[in-house]
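Case 417 in the screening queue. Each case pairs one protein sequence with one candidate compound; here the compound is pyridoxal-5'-phosphate. For every case the pipeline is the same: read the inputs, emit a complex structure as tokens, and attach any notable structural observations.

Predict complex for case 417.
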Amino acid sequence: MISPTLAINERAKELAVAGKKVIKLGFGQSPFPVPESVVNSLSRHAGQKDYLPVSGFAPLREAVASFYQRSYDMTIAPDQVMIGPGSKELIFQAQLAMKRTLLLPSPSWVSYAPQAEMLGLPVHWMDTTIEDDWCLQAEVLEQTCKEISGEKLLILNTPSNPTGRAISRTSLIEIADICRRHGVIVISDEIYRQLHFGGETHSIADYYPEGTIISSGLSKWCGAGGWRLGTFVFPQALSALQDLMAVQASETFSCVSAPIQHAAVVAYQGGEAVSTYLHHSKIALQFISRYIQRTFQEAGILCPHATGGFYLFPSFEPFRDHLATLGIHTGAQLCDHILNTFGVTLLPGVAFGRPEAELSFRLSYVDFDGEAILTHLHLGGEFTAPTSVQAFFPNIHTAISQITSWVTPFQPLLMKD
Ligand SMILES: Cc1ncc(COP(=O)(O)O)c(C=O)c1O
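Case 417 output:
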């Protein structure tokens, strides 16, 4: 089956071709353009045509290592870095190289489990709750590690797609301790870390360095999903795994395209323009996510607020009885209803490993003109709700108003119950 996130995008395109107005809150692509300095570097390097080393262009591996030092105070040697055609491919290659049972919190990003299934590897889902902001709890992992025999791989994504939540430092320390005791290897998928809205960010690699591979890339913070560039950082202790992945890479993708790797050096070197770009991106994402979360909460929709990235993961469980009278019993039926009635695409929780009947879904708040917003902020503009929502995020404003107006009449019933 085609990945559900890509499928919803296709469906949205079909509706648009049929002349229907579609608001796309289903697909998680960055709304921002690639920073100008990075695009200029790509143009300058368009003539680079030679194959590059399998593990990546040396200046890029150096730039990625210094990026981690500068941004997160992590000491990483350039030869611990591997460059691949997107972190999705690197995660797949890692699963192929390790052949371990995959442990996943539910909900998790859509592609981890299908990758394991394609490789014939067992997948074990670990439940989370909305009360815990959909974050993996240490005791659930401990119990799983006791129950599941054999070698295990945990993929932990923070801040998370689909929930927008970052795992707390305390939880990461507990999870690190369990993984160390049970010999679990961790892929820490940190592709949204630079889009954490504020304060300090934490990585499980700080507490379990010897067993953690850090996964990231250009797709989210740099708005360059289509450029296909991902990064892995291996600990020295997993150098044999890194070597094996390099062998696999040499027999499969060979290397990431040369012009993209040259341009990525500029992205990872950073500088004022890139920092401002990131700062403004986060202001916009935090503003709109808070607006949606507050509006949903006022309408009685359960919705933990996001701490980073592009996503919210609300639940319509409080309206279950009322929705049942409309023939809506599952998350997929709820999303279909919203698509057919309001032309808004969402992805049901089941796509992320939640129970089919649960009335949860992922909302990607990226249907806006990122370029216009960056220009506004660059010129010293600010955001104030609700006027800026209407002015700069009109599609999201329409979608959220329609959805909340639909469920608001259900609220009195809810209170009577
Ligand atoms: C959590 C997460 N991990 C990995 C990826 C893959 O990113 P890429 O292959 O573009 O690096 C995505 C993209 O949607 C994602 O949301």
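Case 417 observations:
- The chain has 16 helices and twelve strands.
- The first helix runs from residue 4 to 17.
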